[in-house]
Amino acid sequence: MAGFRLIDLAKPFLAFVPEIELPYDNLPFDDKLVITLTTALIYLFGQFPLAGITKESVDVKDPIFFLRGVFAAEPRTLLEFGIFPPIATALILQLLAGFKLIKVNFNQRTDRELFQTLIKIVSIGSYAILANIFIASGYYGEDLSLMAKFLINSQLIGAGFFVTLLIEVIDKGHGFASGAMAIIAISLSTGLVDDLFGVQQIPVGQEGHREPRGAVINLLQGFRAKHKTFLGALVNAFQRDYLPNLTSGLLVIVLGGTVCYLQNIRTELSIRSTKARGMSNVYPIRLLYTGGLSLLFSYSILFYIHILGFVIIQLIGGNQEGSIINKVLGGYESTEFFYLARFPLSLLTPPTSFFAVFKQPLTVVTFSAFLIVTGVWFATNWQEISGSSSRDVSKQFKEQDVALAGHRDASKELIRIIPVASATGAATLAVLVAVGELLGLKGKGAGIVVAVCSAFAILEVVTVDFQQTGGQSSIAQMLGGRAA
Amino acid sequence: MDSSVPGGQRTLQKRRNAQLQKEKKANQTPASPRQAGFGGSSSSILKLYTDEANGLRVDPLVVLFLAVAFVFSVVALHVVAKVSGKIF
Amino acid sequence: MAKQNAQFDKLVETPLEFVKEGNQFLQKCKKPSKKEYLKIIQAVGIGFVAVGVIGYIIKLIHIPIRYLIV
């Protein structure tokens, strides 16, 4: 093939970029389960504070607080950027390849290898770029020594490097389904447990009182605390804003429940075998045909927009009041924990609390519209290129000697359903997330929606695997056989 | 029936052929590894890696151990920083 | 002018059509029954909490380490 191809950029790296081995055989069910869990737990273990950063509070606060939930990122830890780089890189490169904007011949093994190596290097490169943006902005402290800068760099890039490899371990078939999604699901569920039942005591206020992190524990402890009245404890448990409160906890649970409901809305097409007589079955097409991926895409784009804004305002303009950049782009308002964007950027920033909506009411429209438009656009295109379009499904039907009951041409019927389903599903999810985020969940709403969708996607793979291996699993037996 | 097709039956045949050719072409260059039949991202699952490239091959368990070791090296860095005061 | 109008019409019509189409699709869909839904919620809830508790134990390991060195 003549001409320059983007994937050829990966060629020089092929030789020394680490590559996880594929399993020789299909691994037993239990091994996969254990590896999936262990990998995600190691990811969680990585949420360890960075060394070499200042401990005093700095002027530059967290500008991307509402994007952290979705990407399992924890501020000022090794996982400052979570799994954003691999997810965003993979989604965007795979979309570009699907549009044929990047020339990849997926029929050829060498091309597929180059393509995945390209994803890997670009993600690690993104970690490096993001790390240096944050270092240069003064987020980790002003006037860092050269040594400190080097150490922070190596910590963040090293963590990024291992995160991409952890994802690869699961992706390559040592675990179930997708590494990125397993990590999101487990990290978010841990976050939920921590927010509700976390027992860590954190000092609050000047009087040296301590409050637990978990909202439920806080309620119980509040009733017994001597410095609080019964009513005061109740009010405090529901609306403290410095630590997780019960209101947001309940909202998150409601959102999760709604996603469970949406996940199980489907149309069922009756199919019959063309070989054996009387064999009929149903083929479900889910409303959420592209699952949580549309949201991941919307949030990836949001992340890029906000990082770009942060670079221009903080790095180039220094967030100076009255400078031209701040007049045009609005600049940031520094609060106790966060950097709140002003006018143009605030249109794409969900409020930190329900009442903060009134400061910028337009956000309700722009933020929801952004999520819906990007989500629907993505879902429509993704179903087309990801190998599950109507054409691909009807091809599968033919290969398996299956036909749609009452339709001669399966693809005609499928093309009427699949694109509509994926677009509608993406729009519904976007609306759900917009509602949650506009109520002030600070990224936890979007996080739980993506996490539940991912959990369902993984669960489906797990169930199929469980049935294929004939249910031979000592773990499932231990749990009383209700793992499937 | 024939008269309803402008240009007659033959044009219809041509069009059909062209359509078939187009479809064939579309099928020849798959848009994703899965469309080519090699696994990869599906409609609701994002996969980054499908094939084993000829790189520096590592065992998954080694990676898991190294990842934990990496976190502990950061812990060690904290300890060094605390013991030696302000070194950086 | 006419062309602009047509474009404007299209801009309004596309989302409307989208909503209509989506609504029609939703109406045709099979929704989970109450019993089915309760079962799903229960399973997902238990799974989420179980995995979350395992993850939280890892986080608990962090607390003493942080306390000692930070």
Automatic annotation (TrEMBL), chain A:
Residues 41-74 form the Translocon Sec61/SecY plug domain. One of its GO terms (biological process) is protein transport. The keyword Signal does not apply. Keywords: Membrane, Transmembrane, Transmembrane helix. The chain crosses the membrane at residues 83-102, 114-140, 146-167, 174-193, 246-266, 287-317, 362-380, 417-439, 446-464. GO terms for cellular component: membrane. Belongs to the SecY/SEC61-alpha family. This is KLLA0F02057p. It comes from Kluyveromyces lactis (strain ATCC 8585 / CBS 2359 / DSM 70799 / NBRC 1267 / NRRL Y-1140 / WM37).
UniProtKB/TrEMBL annotation, chain C:
The keyword Transmembrane applies. GO terms for cellular component: endoplasmic reticulum membrane. GO terms for molecular function: protein transmembrane transporter activity. GO terms for biological process: intracellular protein transport; protein targeting. It comes from the Eukaryota. The keyword Transmembrane applies. Its main location: endoplasmic reticulum. The chain crosses the membrane at residues 37-58. Keywords: Endoplasmic reticulum, Membrane, Protein transport, Translocation, Transmembrane, Transmembrane helix, Transport. It is a single-pass membrane protein. SUPFAM superfamilies: Preprotein translocase SecE subunit. It is found in: Endoplasmic reticulum membrane. Belongs to the SecE/SEC61-gamma family. This is KLLA0C11957p. The lineage of its organism: Eukaryota, Fungi, Dikarya, Ascomycota, Saccharomycotina.
